[in-house]
Structure formats: C-alpha cells, structure tokens
Design goal:
By secondary structure, the chain is of the alpha/beta class. The protein has 22 helices and 17 strands. It has a five-stranded parallel beta sheet with strand order 2-3-4-1-5, sandwiched between helices. The protein has a five-stranded mixed beta sheet with strand order 11-14-15-16-17. A three-stranded antiparallel beta sheet has the order 8-10-9.
C-alpha cells in the first residue's frame, strides 16, 4: 500500500510536518477569517473538528513559526490573506473533548487543570513582561498555583486575553474545541445545571463584548443555547449541518475519497465503501465519514463498524431504549429505507430530551445518527426529511436494539432467537419472545399504542436482516386486497418468507386466564384468516416466494398468542 494515513492523529503539525497523506482542508481558514467575530460550528464526532481547529491554531499563532506547514496547501495561494493573518495573533486554545467525568467536582477540577496548562504555555512570557502590572502577574500565579477561586476561574479566559493583548499589543484569537462534551456528560451524570453555569461564566465572559478579541471559533456536536450559555452573544454565528457554510470542510467529499482510494489501489472497493460510509448531507454537500474512511483504507478496504465503535454512544443508547413507541415506530420506517419527516430544533435542549421527541430527533440528526436529505423552512423550524445515512449507522442501531433485547442473556442468546424465527422453529421463537416481554419490556411499553409497539419490536428484532441481499423487510405495504403489517421477504430457497399480522385484544376486567387465552387465540386465528382472505401473499408470490410462513400475533399487554400456518 502506497499510502500512509494519520489514524488517531489530531495535531496538524504532526500530520503536515510528517510523511502522512491527508486531505487539504486549509481553505477552511479563509472562510473563518472572512466570517463574523464569533463562530460556532457543529458537526458529529470524529468528523475532523479537532484537526481543523489545530490547523487554524498553527496558522494564526504568533509563536508557532509554522509557515512551512502551509507552503504547499491551498491557503498559501491566498497571498494577501496569508500575509495579513499568518502568525499574527496570540491564540488561546482549549479543548474539552476529554472532560467526561462522573461528578461535577471532578469535571470542574479537570477544567481548572486545563486552564492552568493554557496559562503555563504563556507563563514565561507574561510573568517576565514589563507591560503587565503586578496585579496581573499575581492573578496569573494564583491560577498557576491552584489558588484561584471559582469566580476567577469563570473569568480566566477573558483575563488571559487581556494579559496577552497587553503584552503583544495585538488582539487575541480564542479557539474552543468540543465545548459541549462536558455539558453532555453533565446531563448523563446528573450535574447538568452546575456544568452549564460554569460554562456560561467561562465562555460568556470571554466572548461577549471582549474588546481584546479578534476572532473566536468554537466547535461541538450540538448548539446548547436555551440554557443561556450563548443567550447574550449578539456577535455569534452558528453553522449546523443544515447550513451551506463550511459544508465540505468536515468529512470527505466524493472526489476526496476517490483520490484516497486511487492512491491506496482500492478503486474496486469504491461502491461498497460508499454504501458503508457515504450518505451524510452537510449543506449542499454529500459527505463521507472521515474516521471510517481512514480506518477502512488502513485495513485494506475492510468495511466494518469503525465510527460507531468509538466512544460517545451512551446518550444515544439511553434515549433509544427509553424512547416512546411512536418514536420506535418511526425508527422502524427508517430501517425499511423510508424517509421520516420531522420538525427539527437546531438548538438542542438537554432538559427537553425526556419530554420532547422533537429534541431527540434533533440530537440524533446533529450527532450524525441520522441525516437530512432535504428540509424546508417553517414557522416552527426546519421540516427535515430524515433517513439513515449508511450501513455503518444502521449497524449502530442494530447493535443497540440487539443488546437491549439480549440484556441478561449470554452472547449467543439473541442469535439463537433470530435463527429460530428464520428456521420456522415456532416453539423456540415463541418461548424466547415470551422471555423478552417478561424480562426486558415494561408494561408501560405495551400500554401506549400497543400494536405499534409489537410492530416496532419485530422490526427491531429482525433489523439486521436488511443489511444483506438475503432478505427484504417491508411494512404496511399494499398487497392483494389490503395492507399487511410486516413481511420478511426471503430470497433464499431454504428459508421461509414470513408475514405477520398483529391484533390487539381489549380484555374486560376480571376475566380468568383461561378466558384471556381464549380471546387471544380467537384474535390470532382472525389474523391468519385476514392474511388469507385479503390475499396478503400476492406480493410475496409475485416475487417468486413459495416457502411462506404466516404468523398471526394477538396480544393484550404483555400476554400474547402466536398462531402460524404454512402457505
């Protein structure tokens, strides 16, 4: 292989100064410099935010002496801009991507430590500067020695920008990478209000009416705004994945991936790699996941779950498992390759995640677990046509669902459960399905929109089947004289096509178990009769299916009866 890619590297100097192949995104610098004073760019994790911020830092930093790093890059052709801005500013650089603590006090101490390290970078210059007064040097020492109080920490970035301005006689640049990681961890670990208050003080003071500021750039996954972290900033522009600006600077474009594959002699794998890792829509650009592409190429074209196996899925997993059945039903449509229209709030409010499905859809979109093919502006926000971006993300959902279904069982339990269904071993399937309902599913799950719950559960159970060419998953499709509930269309001679019809039974109170069972059996038989009388098998037979298994599933809460017959 004649290519060496920087897997795991995020320092621009190491990459550009080493013998790595990398994609030139240096015109990102030009777009930032021509933008407003304070810029927030939100993109999914592992899409190049940290590397771009590192590149921007080396370009702007008055102490970097990094002209050679940019000599052969596109930004060097912008000669007037290069001469005006390269190495012209003191740069305060903070990255919060590793602040993932379980308690607020631990998170606070880690923030303090980070600020101390930033102060240490400038300590020799500032403490020996004849342009700073004794009070300023005392405050610097107070922070360096860990003696600063919480109010001083809250104002530490603003204070450092003044000191740097006083010493260098130039305005400063503030670069803050992954600003929202501690906020997300605060939400997950129950110290959300405290961490928001800290960052409101830290960032608000530094970015609002800071007369020493030339440019500030922040990156993150989400815009956290209604918590008032940015409520008073009238100089802030926010660019999410729905905006045209910066659309091709995070992630790889089709041409960029083609160039990398050509250099790695992997052109024959291009279509498979596209199915796995392409599909994100950022503004008007179709984007590949860069982390996955780099790893895939270094593994000689082996397509695997690279991005979804990195850290950061905890919140998505929690929200998905706890989501309402209406949400799961919509997700089932996405598994079937359909688009789902949803109103999106670009200002994700963590406090709303337990109350608003719109907030969950918004988070999933902004975090890269969904993408928007298109959207239209409405008075209530953008109405987005959402879909699963690619096979890799589909695999994430599948793993979460399968992990949830197999919770408390050994690793082979779920595979055996699914095999029982596909082999037509109804007794084994029914027994394991009963265990899922008894041990994993809450009674509240099946009390609201119960038919949608069972429908969504079966789609989740069988989601992995849609990844290959052996099966097609179809829901609520017209066939014969009606619309069936769910079908697993088999393209294998030795595996049956399975068609499900669901029936909800309202059981009157005080009915005995025997009477309940009788009502469920009657409804399950009606479901089978409906499959036959309305010719639901017409579609399957038109596709050449002859090995058919009909399933009537009747339920009342967590009780169910399953009847089947061969077709």
């Amino acid at each position: 292989m004649s290519i060496r890619l920087p897997v795991g590297y995020s320092d621009f100097k190491e990459i550009a100064g080493g013998e790595f192949d990398f994609v030139d995104k240096s015109l990102f610098i030009k777009e930032v410099l021509e933008d407003t004073q304070v810029v927030l760019i939100t993109r999914p994790r592992r899409f190049g935010k940290t590397l771009n911020m590192s590149m921007l830092r080396y370009f702007l930093d008055i102490n970097a002496n990094a002209a050679d790093l940019f000599a052969n890059l596109k930004i060097s052709q912008e000669k007037e801009l290069f001469a005006k801005h390269h190495s012209q500013y003191p740069v305060i650089y903070l990255t919060f991507k590793d602040i993932k603590e379980n308690t607020y006090e631990d998170a606070y101490q880690k923030v303090v430590r980070m600020i101390q390290l930033v102060y240490a970078d400038f300590s020799n210059v500032l403490l020996n500067s004849d342009k700073l007064i004794a009070f300023q040097k005392k405050e610097i020492n107070s922070i360096l020695e860990g003696k600063a109080n919480r109010a001083a920490i809250g104002g530490s970035v603003l204070f450092l920008s003044k000191c740097l301005h006083d010493h260098y006689g130039r305005k400063v640049c503030i670069l803050i990478d992954e600003y929202d990681t501690p906020v997300q961890e605060g939400y997950l670990n129950n110290y959300y209000p405290e961490i928001v208050r800290l960052f409101r003080n830290l960032l608000g003071a530094a970015l609002k009416d800071n007369v020493y500021l030339f440019k500030a750039v922040l990156t993150g996954i989400l815009r956290v705004s209604k918590e008032s972290m940015f409520s008073d900033l009238n100089n802030l522009m926010v660019y999410s994945i729905l905006n045209q600006e910066y659309g091709d600077y995070f992630g790889f474009t089709e041409d960029e991936v083609s160039g990398l594959l050509a250099k790695a002699n992997l052109q024959a794998k291009a279509e498979e790699i596209k199915r796995w890792y392409n599909g994100y829509q950022f503004g008007n650009h179709r984007i590949y996941n860069p982390w996955s592409i780099v790893n895939c190429i270094m593994q000689r074209g082996l397509c695997n779950l690279y991005w979804v196996n990195t850290s950061g899925n905890d919140l998505v997993r929690q929200l998905l498992i706890k989501s309402s059945e209406s949400f799961k039903t919509q997700l089932a449509r996405l598994f079937e390759g359909q688009m789902v229209p949803q109103l999106i709030n670009e200002n994700v409010v963590f406090g709303d995640l337990n109350k608003s499905e719109s907030a969950i859809w918004s988070l999933f979109l902004m975090a890269g677990y969904l993408t928007a093919d298109s959207f239209e502006a409405t008075e209530r926000g953008p109405l987005c046509q959402l879909r699963l971006p690619n096979r890799e993300v589909r695999g994430l959902y599948r793993n979460i669902i399968e992990g949830w279904l197999a919770d408390g069982f050994d690793s082979n339990w779920y595979d055996t459960f699914l095999d029982a269904l596909l082999d037509g071993n109804i007794v084994e399937f029914e027994n394991r399905f009963k265990l899922i309902l008894e041990r994993i599913v809450s009674v509240h799950d099946v009390s609201y929109m119960p038919e949608a719950f069972y429908h969504g559960l079966l789609v989740g159970i069988t989601a992995r089947l849609g990844d290959g060419n052996d099966y097609s998953l179809r829901s609520n499709r017209e066939s014969g004289y009606g619309r069936y509930d769910y079908m697993i269309l088999s393209h294998l001679v030795d595996k049956p096509t399975i068609i499900f019809e669901f029936k909800k039974v309202n059981v009157p109170k005080k009915k005995s178990l025997k009477e309940v069972k009788h009502l469920l059996e009657k409804a399950a038989k009606e479901a089978l009769d409906q499959i036959n009388s309305l010719s639901y098998l017409a579609e399957a037979k038109s596709q050449g299916a002859s090995n058919i298994l009909k399933m009537g599933l009747a339920f009342s809460g967590k009780r169910f009866v399953l009847m089947h017959e061969r077709g």
